[in-house]
Amino acid sequence: MGKLFIIAGIVLIIIGLIWTFIGRLPGDFTFQKGNMTFHFPLMTSILVSVILTLILFIISRFR
């Protein structure tokens, strides 16, 4: 279980570093009207979902 937490931590650090350098993805939408701003991170949500699915799939294979 300890190895799993170490691997998950390393993966999250790598994702965080990549996310910091990339910034917003092309599929993220921002709508501005007057003093109101609405940000809808569609591609970011899809990317996070795919990454989490892969991580959970890998974890379930090692159990």
From TrEMBL:
Pfam families: DUF2905. It comes from the Bacteria. The chain crosses the membrane at residues 5-26, 38-59. Coiled coil: none annotated. Keywords: Membrane, Transmembrane, Transmembrane helix. InterPro entries: DUF2905. This is DUF2905 domain-containing protein. It comes from Oceanobacillus oncorhynchi.
